[in-house]
Amino acid sequence: MAHTPVYRTLLRALHAARREHLSGARADAPGAGAGACWSRRRFLGTAALAAPALALGDPSGPGGPQSARGYKVHRVAVVGGGLSGLNAAHRLLKAGVNVHLYEAAERLGGRILSRADAVGTGLVTEFGGEFINSAHTDMLDLAREFGLKVYNRAESPASSRYPNTAFFFGGARRDPAELARLLGPLAAQIAADAALVNEDPHRHLAVFDQLSVTAYLDRHRDLIPQPWVRSLVETSIRTEFGSEPEHASALQLLYTLPRVDGDNVEVLGESNEAYCIQGGNSRIIAALGNILGSRVHTGQQLVSVRSVPGEPVRLGFSNGRSVSADQAIITIPFTILRSIKIDAALPERFRRAMAELDLGRNEKILAGFSRRVWQGPEGFVGEAWTDLGFSEVWDASQHQPERQDGALTFFLGAREVTVPVSSDGGTTQGRAFVERLETRLPGLRSTATDRYACTAWTKNPLALGAYTNYRPGQITTFGDLRWSEPENLSTGREVRFDNLVFAGEHLSEAYFGYMNGAAQTGRLAAQSVLRYAAVADGTYDP
Protein backbone atom coordinates (compact mmCIF):
# COMPACT_ATOMS: atom_id res chain seq x y z
CA MET A 1 0.00 0.00 0.00
CA ALA A 2 2.91 2.36 0.48
CA HIS A 3 4.57 4.02 -2.52
CA THR A 4 1.27 4.99 -4.03
CA PRO A 5 0.83 6.13 -7.63
CA VAL A 6 0.20 9.76 -6.84
CA TYR A 7 3.57 10.17 -5.09
CA ARG A 8 5.31 10.39 -8.43
CA THR A 9 3.25 13.49 -9.18
CA LEU A 10 4.95 15.35 -6.34
CA LEU A 11 8.24 14.26 -7.85
CA ARG A 12 7.20 15.68 -11.21
CA ALA A 13 6.15 18.94 -9.57
CA LEU A 14 9.50 19.12 -7.84
CA HIS A 15 11.23 18.41 -11.15
CA ALA A 16 9.53 21.43 -12.64
CA ALA A 17 10.21 23.55 -9.57
CA ARG A 18 13.88 22.72 -9.58
CA ARG A 19 14.24 23.40 -13.25
CA GLU A 20 12.72 26.83 -12.66
CA HIS A 21 14.72 27.68 -9.54
CA LEU A 22 18.02 25.94 -10.27
CA SER A 23 18.44 26.43 -14.00
CA GLY A 24 21.13 28.99 -13.32
CA ALA A 25 22.94 27.03 -10.63
CA ARG A 26 26.71 26.70 -10.86
CA ALA A 27 28.03 23.25 -11.63
CA ASP A 28 29.77 23.18 -8.24
CA ALA A 29 26.83 24.53 -6.25
CA PRO A 30 25.12 22.39 -3.58
CA GLY A 31 22.54 20.23 -5.25
CA ALA A 32 24.28 20.40 -8.62
CA GLY A 33 26.31 17.79 -10.43
CA ALA A 34 25.91 14.11 -11.12
CA GLY A 35 27.21 13.38 -7.63
CA ALA A 36 23.94 14.68 -6.25
CA CYS A 37 21.95 11.81 -7.78
CA TRP A 38 21.40 8.40 -6.25
CA SER A 39 18.90 5.64 -6.04
CA ARG A 40 17.21 4.23 -2.96
CA ARG A 41 19.66 1.34 -3.17
CA ARG A 42 22.67 3.63 -3.22
CA PHE A 43 21.19 5.79 -0.49
CA LEU A 44 20.73 2.96 1.99
CA GLY A 45 24.16 1.66 1.03
CA THR A 46 25.44 5.08 2.06
CA ALA A 47 23.36 4.93 5.22
CA ALA A 48 25.05 1.67 6.11
CA LEU A 49 28.37 3.55 6.29
CA ALA A 50 27.08 5.45 9.30
CA ALA A 51 25.86 2.34 11.13
CA PRO A 52 28.07 0.29 13.47
CA ALA A 53 29.78 -2.58 11.68
CA LEU A 54 27.86 -5.84 11.78
CA ALA A 55 28.98 -9.02 10.09
CA LEU A 56 26.05 -10.47 8.22
CA GLY A 57 26.14 -13.50 5.97
CA ASP A 58 29.06 -13.58 3.54
CA PRO A 59 29.80 -16.65 1.42
CA SER A 60 33.52 -16.31 2.13
CA GLY A 61 33.72 -14.53 5.50
CA PRO A 62 33.00 -15.04 9.21
CA GLY A 63 29.50 -16.31 9.80
CA GLY A 64 29.44 -17.56 6.23
CA PRO A 65 29.24 -21.07 4.85
CA GLN A 66 31.98 -22.36 7.14
CA SER A 67 29.40 -22.21 9.92
CA ALA A 68 27.37 -24.86 8.12
CA ARG A 69 29.70 -27.33 9.88
CA GLY A 70 30.11 -29.43 6.77
CA TYR A 71 26.69 -31.08 6.63
CA LYS A 72 24.76 -31.24 3.41
CA VAL A 73 21.43 -29.39 3.24
CA HIS A 74 18.66 -31.98 3.18
CA ARG A 75 15.62 -29.88 4.04
CA VAL A 76 14.77 -26.19 4.10
CA ALA A 77 11.85 -24.68 6.00
CA VAL A 78 10.37 -21.38 4.87
CA VAL A 79 8.22 -19.55 7.41
CA GLY A 80 5.72 -17.05 6.02
CA GLY A 81 3.46 -17.50 3.00
CA GLY A 82 3.65 -13.96 1.69
CA LEU A 83 5.38 -13.12 -1.57
CA SER A 84 8.88 -13.32 -0.08
CA GLY A 85 8.45 -16.79 1.37
CA LEU A 86 6.61 -18.09 -1.69
CA ASN A 87 9.28 -16.83 -4.09
CA ALA A 88 12.06 -18.29 -1.94
CA ALA A 89 10.34 -21.69 -1.76
CA HIS A 90 9.56 -21.63 -5.48
CA ARG A 91 13.17 -21.03 -6.43
CA LEU A 92 14.45 -23.67 -4.05
CA LEU A 93 11.99 -26.21 -5.39
CA LYS A 94 13.11 -25.46 -8.95
CA ALA A 95 16.68 -26.15 -7.82
CA GLY A 96 15.67 -29.56 -6.48
CA VAL A 97 15.72 -28.69 -2.78
CA ASN A 98 13.38 -30.44 -0.36
CA VAL A 99 11.56 -27.33 0.82
CA HIS A 100 8.38 -26.87 2.85
CA LEU A 101 6.56 -23.63 3.60
CA TYR A 102 4.63 -22.84 6.79
CA GLU A 103 2.04 -20.06 6.96
CA ALA A 104 0.07 -18.96 10.02
CA ALA A 105 -3.06 -17.90 8.10
CA GLU A 106 -5.40 -20.12 6.15
CA ARG A 107 -4.62 -18.22 2.96
CA LEU A 108 -1.38 -17.32 1.18
CA GLY A 109 -0.27 -13.88 0.06
CA GLY A 110 0.34 -11.91 3.25
CA ARG A 111 -0.19 -8.23 2.46
CA ILE A 112 -1.13 -8.99 -1.14
CA LEU A 113 -4.85 -9.60 -1.49
CA SER A 114 -6.97 -9.15 -4.64
CA ARG A 115 -10.74 -9.50 -4.45
CA ALA A 116 -13.35 -9.76 -7.16
CA ASP A 117 -16.90 -8.48 -6.69
CA ALA A 118 -16.11 -6.57 -3.48
CA VAL A 119 -17.57 -3.27 -4.75
CA GLY A 120 -18.96 -4.29 -8.13
CA THR A 121 -19.76 -7.49 -9.98
CA GLY A 122 -16.69 -8.48 -11.94
CA LEU A 123 -14.56 -5.61 -10.61
CA VAL A 124 -11.19 -6.75 -9.25
CA THR A 125 -9.71 -4.51 -6.57
CA GLU A 126 -6.54 -4.68 -4.47
CA PHE A 127 -6.81 -4.71 -0.69
CA GLY A 128 -3.03 -4.77 -0.27
CA GLY A 129 -0.02 -4.15 -2.50
CA GLU A 130 -1.21 -2.73 -5.78
CA PHE A 131 1.21 -1.13 -8.25
CA ILE A 132 4.47 -2.23 -9.87
CA ASN A 133 7.31 0.11 -10.73
CA SER A 134 8.85 -0.20 -14.18
CA ALA A 135 12.16 -1.01 -12.45
CA HIS A 136 10.65 -3.80 -10.32
CA THR A 137 12.19 -6.64 -12.28
CA ASP A 138 11.40 -9.40 -9.80
CA MET A 139 7.68 -8.67 -9.99
CA LEU A 140 7.72 -8.30 -13.76
CA ASP A 141 9.75 -11.50 -14.13
CA LEU A 142 7.20 -13.41 -12.05
CA ALA A 143 4.37 -12.06 -14.19
CA ARG A 144 6.19 -13.20 -17.34
CA GLU A 145 7.03 -16.59 -15.86
CA PHE A 146 3.36 -17.30 -15.17
CA GLY A 147 2.04 -15.74 -18.37
CA LEU A 148 0.17 -12.95 -16.57
CA LYS A 149 -0.83 -9.83 -18.46
CA VAL A 150 0.61 -6.56 -17.17
CA TYR A 151 -1.44 -3.40 -17.70
CA ASN A 152 0.41 -0.14 -18.38
CA ARG A 153 -1.51 2.57 -16.51
CA ALA A 154 -0.17 5.27 -18.83
CA GLU A 155 -2.14 3.66 -21.67
CA SER A 156 -5.52 4.31 -20.07
CA PRO A 157 -7.82 5.42 -22.91
CA ALA A 158 -8.80 8.64 -21.12
CA SER A 159 -5.19 9.72 -20.53
CA SER A 160 -4.98 11.57 -23.83
CA ARG A 161 -8.03 13.70 -22.99
CA TYR A 162 -7.96 14.46 -19.29
CA PRO A 163 -5.43 15.21 -16.54
CA ASN A 164 -3.85 12.20 -14.94
CA THR A 165 -3.61 13.83 -11.51
CA ALA A 166 -5.55 16.43 -9.55
CA PHE A 167 -4.75 18.36 -6.36
CA PHE A 168 -7.64 19.35 -4.07
CA PHE A 169 -6.18 21.51 -1.31
CA GLY A 170 -7.20 24.60 0.59
CA GLY A 171 -10.75 24.53 -0.73
CA ALA A 172 -9.74 24.60 -4.40
CA ARG A 173 -8.40 22.55 -7.28
CA ARG A 174 -4.72 23.48 -7.53
CA ASP A 175 -3.00 23.81 -10.87
CA PRO A 176 0.20 21.72 -11.22
CA ALA A 177 2.07 24.76 -12.54
CA GLU A 178 1.08 26.70 -9.42
CA LEU A 179 2.23 23.79 -7.29
CA ALA A 180 5.59 23.69 -9.04
CA ARG A 181 6.09 27.43 -8.54
CA LEU A 182 5.18 27.37 -4.86
CA LEU A 183 7.23 24.24 -4.14
CA GLY A 184 10.29 25.66 -5.88
CA PRO A 185 12.17 27.17 -2.92
CA LEU A 186 11.64 24.11 -0.69
CA ALA A 187 12.54 21.80 -3.57
CA ALA A 188 15.83 23.64 -4.04
CA GLN A 189 16.64 23.30 -0.34
CA ILE A 190 15.87 19.58 -0.38
CA ALA A 191 18.15 19.15 -3.39
CA ALA A 192 20.98 21.00 -1.66
CA ASP A 193 20.65 19.01 1.56
CA ALA A 194 20.45 15.72 -0.32
CA ALA A 195 23.67 16.66 -2.09
CA LEU A 196 25.40 17.34 1.26
CA VAL A 197 24.45 13.87 2.51
CA ASN A 198 25.64 12.27 -0.70
CA GLU A 199 28.95 14.12 -0.79
CA ASP A 200 29.89 13.60 2.86
CA PRO A 201 27.66 10.98 4.50
CA HIS A 202 29.90 10.57 7.56
CA ARG A 203 29.37 14.22 8.42
CA HIS A 204 25.80 14.87 7.36
CA LEU A 205 23.79 11.66 7.21
CA ALA A 206 23.30 11.19 10.95
CA VAL A 207 22.48 14.89 11.36
CA PHE A 208 19.52 14.69 8.98
CA ASP A 209 18.49 11.27 10.27
CA GLN A 210 18.08 12.68 13.76
CA LEU A 211 15.67 15.29 12.38
CA SER A 212 12.03 14.47 11.88
CA VAL A 213 10.26 15.63 8.74
CA THR A 214 8.32 18.06 10.94
CA ALA A 215 11.52 19.53 12.36
CA TYR A 216 12.98 19.83 8.87
CA LEU A 217 9.92 21.66 7.56
CA ASP A 218 9.87 23.90 10.64
CA ARG A 219 13.50 24.80 9.97
CA HIS A 220 12.57 25.89 6.44
CA ARG A 221 9.13 27.36 7.10
CA ASP A 222 10.18 30.57 5.32
CA LEU A 223 10.45 28.56 2.09
CA ILE A 224 6.83 27.39 2.30
CA PRO A 225 4.59 30.23 1.07
CA GLN A 226 1.17 28.75 1.88
CA PRO A 227 -0.10 26.30 4.52
CA TRP A 228 -1.62 23.96 1.94
CA VAL A 229 1.81 23.47 0.33
CA ARG A 230 3.17 22.15 3.60
CA SER A 231 0.04 20.05 4.00
CA LEU A 232 0.71 18.42 0.65
CA VAL A 233 4.32 17.59 1.58
CA GLU A 234 3.20 16.13 4.91
CA THR A 235 0.55 14.11 3.10
CA SER A 236 3.27 12.54 0.97
CA ILE A 237 4.92 11.19 4.13
CA ARG A 238 1.64 9.82 5.48
CA THR A 239 0.96 7.96 2.26
CA GLU A 240 4.48 6.77 1.48
CA PHE A 241 5.41 5.58 4.96
CA GLY A 242 2.17 5.48 6.94
CA SER A 243 3.69 7.87 9.44
CA GLU A 244 3.01 11.31 10.82
CA PRO A 245 5.82 13.67 9.78
CA GLU A 246 7.01 14.07 13.36
CA HIS A 247 7.61 10.30 13.51
CA ALA A 248 9.48 9.99 10.20
CA SER A 249 13.19 10.55 9.61
CA ALA A 250 13.93 13.61 7.48
CA LEU A 251 16.12 11.35 5.36
CA GLN A 252 12.92 9.76 4.08
CA LEU A 253 12.00 13.16 2.67
CA LEU A 254 15.45 13.76 1.19
CA TYR A 255 16.16 10.46 -0.49
CA THR A 256 12.74 9.82 -1.99
CA LEU A 257 12.88 13.05 -3.98
CA PRO A 258 14.89 13.64 -7.18
CA ARG A 259 18.36 15.12 -7.34
CA VAL A 260 19.55 17.97 -9.55
CA ASP A 261 22.32 17.87 -12.17
CA GLY A 262 22.88 21.49 -13.16
CA ASP A 263 19.72 22.61 -14.90
CA ASN A 264 18.54 19.04 -15.44
CA VAL A 265 17.02 16.52 -13.06
CA GLU A 266 17.83 12.84 -12.86
CA VAL A 267 15.76 10.44 -10.84
CA LEU A 268 17.34 7.09 -10.08
CA GLY A 269 14.92 4.51 -8.74
CA GLU A 270 11.89 6.68 -9.43
CA SER A 271 8.60 5.43 -8.00
CA ASN A 272 6.46 5.47 -11.10
CA GLU A 273 4.00 2.66 -10.21
CA ALA A 274 3.44 2.17 -13.92
CA TYR A 275 1.88 -1.30 -13.97
CA CYS A 276 -0.66 -3.59 -12.40
CA ILE A 277 -1.46 -7.25 -12.98
CA GLN A 278 -4.66 -7.76 -14.91
CA GLY A 279 -6.90 -9.92 -12.79
CA GLY A 280 -5.08 -8.87 -9.61
CA ASN A 281 -1.75 -9.43 -7.91
CA SER A 282 -3.14 -12.48 -6.14
CA ARG A 283 -2.77 -14.31 -9.45
CA ILE A 284 0.99 -14.37 -8.77
CA ILE A 285 0.31 -15.74 -5.29
CA ALA A 286 -2.02 -18.41 -6.68
CA ALA A 287 0.52 -19.46 -9.29
CA LEU A 288 3.28 -19.84 -6.71
CA GLY A 289 0.98 -21.72 -4.34
CA ASN A 290 -0.10 -24.11 -7.08
CA ILE A 291 3.49 -24.96 -7.94
CA LEU A 292 4.39 -25.65 -4.31
CA GLY A 293 1.24 -27.74 -3.81
CA SER A 294 1.39 -30.04 -0.80
CA ARG A 295 4.62 -28.46 0.36
CA VAL A 296 2.55 -25.54 1.67
CA HIS A 297 1.21 -25.92 5.21
CA THR A 298 -1.30 -23.27 6.31
CA GLY A 299 -2.62 -22.67 9.81
CA GLN A 300 0.91 -23.03 11.20
CA GLN A 301 1.72 -20.12 13.53
CA LEU A 302 5.37 -19.99 14.54
CA VAL A 303 6.01 -19.58 18.27
CA SER A 304 9.63 -20.65 18.74
CA VAL A 305 12.92 -20.97 16.88
CA ARG A 306 16.04 -22.76 18.10
CA SER A 307 19.26 -22.51 16.11
CA VAL A 308 22.50 -24.00 17.45
CA PRO A 309 25.62 -24.13 15.24
CA GLY A 310 26.15 -27.60 13.85
CA GLU A 311 22.57 -28.71 14.54
CA PRO A 312 19.34 -28.49 12.54
CA VAL A 313 17.04 -25.56 13.09
CA ARG A 314 14.04 -26.45 15.21
CA LEU A 315 10.75 -24.64 14.67
CA GLY A 316 7.80 -24.85 17.05
CA PHE A 317 4.22 -23.98 16.10
CA SER A 318 1.20 -23.02 18.20
CA ASN A 319 -0.60 -26.28 17.40
CA GLY A 320 2.24 -28.30 18.95
CA ARG A 321 3.87 -29.20 15.65
CA SER A 322 7.68 -29.30 15.61
CA VAL A 323 9.78 -29.14 12.47
CA SER A 324 13.53 -29.63 11.95
CA ALA A 325 15.40 -28.26 8.95
CA ASP A 326 19.00 -27.80 7.92
CA GLN A 327 18.29 -24.16 7.10
CA ALA A 328 15.29 -21.94 7.70
CA ILE A 329 14.15 -18.82 5.87
CA ILE A 330 11.96 -16.59 8.05
CA THR A 331 9.91 -13.94 6.25
CA ILE A 332 7.74 -12.65 9.11
CA PRO A 333 7.53 -8.86 9.69
CA PHE A 334 9.37 -7.55 12.74
CA THR A 335 6.05 -6.50 14.27
CA ILE A 336 5.20 -10.20 14.62
CA LEU A 337 8.69 -11.68 14.86
CA ARG A 338 9.37 -9.81 18.11
CA SER A 339 6.73 -11.91 19.87
CA ILE A 340 8.35 -15.22 18.87
CA LYS A 341 10.85 -16.92 21.16
CA ILE A 342 14.13 -17.11 19.24
CA ASP A 343 16.92 -19.10 20.84
CA ALA A 344 19.78 -18.26 18.51
CA ALA A 345 23.00 -16.26 18.47
CA LEU A 346 21.54 -13.14 16.86
CA PRO A 347 23.52 -9.90 17.16
CA GLU A 348 22.16 -7.50 19.76
CA ARG A 349 21.55 -4.79 17.15
CA PHE A 350 19.48 -7.14 15.02
CA ARG A 351 17.36 -7.95 18.04
CA ARG A 352 16.99 -4.21 18.62
CA ALA A 353 15.83 -3.81 15.03
CA MET A 354 13.22 -6.53 15.59
CA ALA A 355 12.02 -4.76 18.72
CA GLU A 356 12.03 -1.18 17.42
CA LEU A 357 11.32 -1.09 13.67
CA ASP A 358 7.61 -0.79 13.00
CA LEU A 359 5.30 -0.85 10.02
CA GLY A 360 3.47 2.28 8.98
CA ARG A 361 -0.30 2.69 9.26
CA ASN A 362 -2.18 2.75 5.97
CA GLU A 363 -5.68 1.58 5.07
CA LYS A 364 -7.98 1.66 2.06
CA ILE A 365 -11.68 2.29 1.66
CA LEU A 366 -12.94 1.11 -1.72
CA ALA A 367 -16.12 2.39 -3.36
CA GLY A 368 -18.03 1.25 -6.45
CA PHE A 369 -19.51 3.53 -9.13
CA SER A 370 -21.75 2.94 -12.13
CA ARG A 371 -19.67 5.38 -14.23
CA ARG A 372 -16.20 6.86 -13.93
CA VAL A 373 -17.29 10.48 -13.63
CA TRP A 374 -13.88 11.41 -12.21
CA GLN A 375 -12.53 11.12 -15.75
CA GLY A 376 -13.03 14.68 -16.95
CA PRO A 377 -11.31 18.04 -17.38
CA GLU A 378 -11.81 18.98 -13.71
CA GLY A 379 -11.10 15.49 -12.44
CA PHE A 380 -8.40 12.91 -13.00
CA VAL A 381 -7.67 9.69 -14.86
CA GLY A 382 -5.25 8.19 -12.36
CA GLU A 383 -5.36 9.83 -8.96
CA ALA A 384 -5.79 12.90 -6.77
CA TRP A 385 -4.23 14.23 -3.59
CA THR A 386 -6.52 15.92 -1.12
CA ASP A 387 -6.96 17.46 2.32
CA LEU A 388 -10.53 16.17 2.48
CA GLY A 389 -9.84 13.64 5.24
CA PHE A 390 -8.27 11.08 2.93
CA SER A 391 -4.76 11.71 1.64
CA GLU A 392 -5.29 10.22 -1.79
CA VAL A 393 -7.92 8.78 -4.05
CA TRP A 394 -7.23 6.82 -7.22
CA ASP A 395 -8.97 4.82 -9.91
CA ALA A 396 -8.74 1.25 -8.65
CA SER A 397 -10.16 -0.16 -11.89
CA GLN A 398 -7.78 1.20 -14.54
CA HIS A 399 -6.67 -2.29 -15.47
CA GLN A 400 -10.24 -3.00 -16.59
CA PRO A 401 -10.62 -0.22 -19.18
CA GLU A 402 -13.28 -2.10 -21.13
CA ARG A 403 -15.80 -1.56 -18.33
CA GLN A 404 -18.00 1.51 -17.94
CA ASP A 405 -18.34 1.09 -14.18
CA GLY A 406 -15.38 1.47 -11.89
CA ALA A 407 -13.99 1.77 -8.39
CA LEU A 408 -12.12 4.36 -6.36
CA THR A 409 -9.66 3.71 -3.57
CA PHE A 410 -9.68 6.26 -0.77
CA PHE A 411 -6.24 5.94 0.83
CA LEU A 412 -5.61 6.78 4.47
CA GLY A 413 -2.27 7.28 6.19
CA ALA A 414 -1.08 7.62 9.79
CA ARG A 415 -3.50 9.70 11.89
CA GLU A 416 -6.25 9.27 9.28
CA VAL A 417 -6.27 5.58 10.20
CA THR A 418 -7.21 6.33 13.82
CA VAL A 419 -10.82 6.69 12.64
CA PRO A 420 -12.41 3.20 12.73
CA VAL A 421 -12.95 1.96 9.19
CA SER A 422 -13.99 -1.63 9.66
CA SER A 423 -16.99 -1.53 11.99
CA ASP A 424 -19.44 -1.44 9.06
CA GLY A 425 -17.19 -2.51 6.23
CA GLY A 426 -16.22 1.07 5.48
CA THR A 427 -19.73 2.11 4.45
CA THR A 428 -20.16 5.11 6.76
CA GLN A 429 -16.74 6.55 6.06
CA GLY A 430 -16.97 5.71 2.37
CA ARG A 431 -20.24 7.61 2.04
CA ALA A 432 -18.69 10.59 3.83
CA PHE A 433 -15.71 10.57 1.48
CA VAL A 434 -17.94 10.43 -1.59
CA GLU A 435 -19.85 13.47 -0.25
CA ARG A 436 -16.62 15.40 0.27
CA LEU A 437 -15.26 14.52 -3.15
CA GLU A 438 -18.60 15.54 -4.66
CA THR A 439 -17.70 19.15 -3.79
CA ARG A 440 -14.84 18.88 -6.28
CA LEU A 441 -16.41 16.41 -8.73
CA PRO A 442 -20.14 17.12 -9.14
CA GLY A 443 -22.04 14.01 -10.18
CA LEU A 444 -19.93 11.59 -8.17
CA ARG A 445 -22.64 11.00 -5.58
CA SER A 446 -25.29 10.12 -8.15
CA THR A 447 -23.11 7.42 -9.71
CA ALA A 448 -22.06 5.80 -6.40
CA THR A 449 -23.50 2.29 -6.09
CA ASP A 450 -23.31 2.35 -2.28
CA ARG A 451 -21.05 -0.68 -2.30
CA TYR A 452 -18.01 -0.26 -0.06
CA ALA A 453 -15.20 -2.33 1.35
CA CYS A 454 -12.25 -1.57 3.60
CA THR A 455 -8.95 -2.99 4.80
CA ALA A 456 -7.77 -3.51 8.38
CA TRP A 457 -4.04 -4.22 8.13
CA THR A 458 -3.21 -2.34 11.32
CA LYS A 459 -5.49 -4.73 13.24
CA ASN A 460 -4.46 -7.88 11.38
CA PRO A 461 -2.68 -10.03 14.01
CA LEU A 462 -0.29 -11.37 11.36
CA ALA A 463 0.77 -7.93 10.10
CA LEU A 464 -0.07 -5.10 12.53
CA GLY A 465 0.66 -2.50 9.89
CA ALA A 466 1.32 -1.73 6.26
CA TYR A 467 4.94 -1.28 5.17
CA THR A 468 8.24 -0.15 6.66
CA ASN A 469 8.75 3.30 8.19
CA TYR A 470 11.92 4.69 9.79
CA ARG A 471 11.65 6.98 12.78
CA PRO A 472 14.30 9.67 13.38
CA GLY A 473 17.68 8.04 14.03
CA GLN A 474 16.69 4.56 12.83
CA ILE A 475 18.18 4.65 9.34
CA THR A 476 21.72 5.27 10.59
CA THR A 477 21.21 2.78 13.42
CA PHE A 478 19.81 -0.09 11.35
CA GLY A 479 20.62 0.93 7.76
CA ASP A 480 23.01 -1.96 7.12
CA LEU A 481 20.62 -4.69 8.27
CA ARG A 482 19.27 -5.22 4.76
CA TRP A 483 19.78 -7.44 1.77
CA SER A 484 22.00 -5.67 -0.73
CA GLU A 485 21.69 -6.84 -4.33
CA PRO A 486 25.19 -8.06 -5.15
CA GLU A 487 27.02 -6.71 -8.15
CA ASN A 488 29.44 -9.50 -7.26
CA LEU A 489 29.85 -11.77 -4.26
CA SER A 490 32.16 -9.31 -2.50
CA THR A 491 29.66 -6.44 -2.57
CA GLY A 492 26.41 -8.19 -1.68
CA ARG A 493 25.01 -8.24 1.86
CA GLU A 494 22.94 -11.07 3.30
CA VAL A 495 20.72 -11.19 6.36
CA ARG A 496 21.56 -14.55 7.79
CA PHE A 497 23.06 -15.87 11.00
CA ASP A 498 24.42 -19.39 10.74
CA ASN A 499 21.51 -21.53 9.47
CA LEU A 500 18.83 -18.81 9.93
CA VAL A 501 18.02 -16.57 6.97
CA PHE A 502 15.66 -13.58 7.26
CA ALA A 503 13.80 -12.00 4.33
CA GLY A 504 10.83 -9.78 3.50
CA GLU A 505 10.17 -6.31 2.11
CA HIS A 506 11.32 -4.79 5.41
CA LEU A 507 14.78 -6.26 4.79
CA SER A 508 15.31 -5.00 1.24
CA GLU A 509 17.86 -2.23 0.87
CA ALA A 510 16.58 -1.06 -2.49
CA TYR A 511 12.86 -1.84 -2.34
CA PHE A 512 11.64 -1.75 1.25
CA GLY A 513 7.95 -1.03 1.28
CA TYR A 514 7.39 -2.49 -2.18
CA MET A 515 6.07 -5.84 -3.31
CA ASN A 516 9.31 -6.05 -5.27
CA GLY A 517 11.24 -5.92 -2.00
CA ALA A 518 9.45 -9.05 -0.87
CA ALA A 519 10.04 -10.86 -4.18
CA GLN A 520 13.66 -9.72 -4.35
CA THR A 521 14.64 -10.80 -0.82
CA GLY A 522 12.91 -14.13 -1.35
CA ARG A 523 15.03 -14.68 -4.45
CA LEU A 524 18.23 -13.60 -2.68
CA ALA A 525 17.44 -15.78 0.35
CA ALA A 526 17.01 -18.82 -1.91
CA GLN A 527 20.30 -18.06 -3.63
CA SER A 528 21.99 -17.82 -0.24
CA VAL A 529 20.62 -21.19 0.85
CA LEU A 530 21.85 -22.80 -2.37
CA ARG A 531 25.29 -21.21 -2.00
CA TYR A 532 25.69 -22.36 1.57
CA ALA A 533 24.49 -25.84 0.66
CA ALA A 534 27.06 -25.99 -2.14
CA VAL A 535 29.84 -24.97 0.25
CA ALA A 536 28.79 -27.60 2.76
CA ASP A 537 28.64 -30.16 -0.05
CA GLY A 538 32.05 -29.17 -1.39
CA THR A 539 30.63 -28.16 -4.77
CA TYR A 540 30.67 -24.38 -4.32
CA ASP A 541 32.43 -22.57 -7.17
CA PRO A 542 32.49 -18.76 -6.72
Could you describe the 3D structure shown?
The chain is of the alpha/beta class and 542 residues long. It has three domains: 7-50 and 175-266, no CATH class; 65-110 and 279-357 and 471-537, FAD/NAD(P)-binding domain, CATH 3.50.50; 114-134 and 150-165 and 359-454, Polyamine Oxidase, Chain A, domain 2 (Alpha-Beta Complex). Helices cover 32% and strands 17% of the residues. It is built from 16 helices and 23 strands. The chain has a seven-stranded mixed sheet. Strands 11-2-1-15-23-22 form a six-stranded mixed sheet, covered by helices on one side. The radius of gyration is 23 Å and the shape is globular. Residues 21-42, 58-71 and 258-269 have low confidence and may be disordered.
Separation of the first and last Cα atoms: 38 Å
Counted by DSSP, the helix tally is 16
Return the structural class. Answer: alpha/beta
Q: Could you please say which CATH topology of the largest domain applies here?
A: FAD/NAD(P)-binding domain
Shape: globular
- Quick one: CATH class of the largest domain? Alpha Beta
What is the CA-atom radius of gyration, in angstroms? 23 Å
Strand content of the residues, in percent? 15-25%
Number of strands: 23
Low-confidence stretches: 21-42, 58-71, 258-269
Helix content: 25-40%
The major pleated sheet works out as: 7 strands, mixed
What's the CATH superfamily of the largest domain, by name? FAD/NAD(P)-binding domain
Overall average residue pLDDT: 85
Number of separate structural domains: 3
CATH architecture of the largest domain: 3-Layer(bba) Sandwich
Major sheet strand order: 7-6-18-19-20-17-21
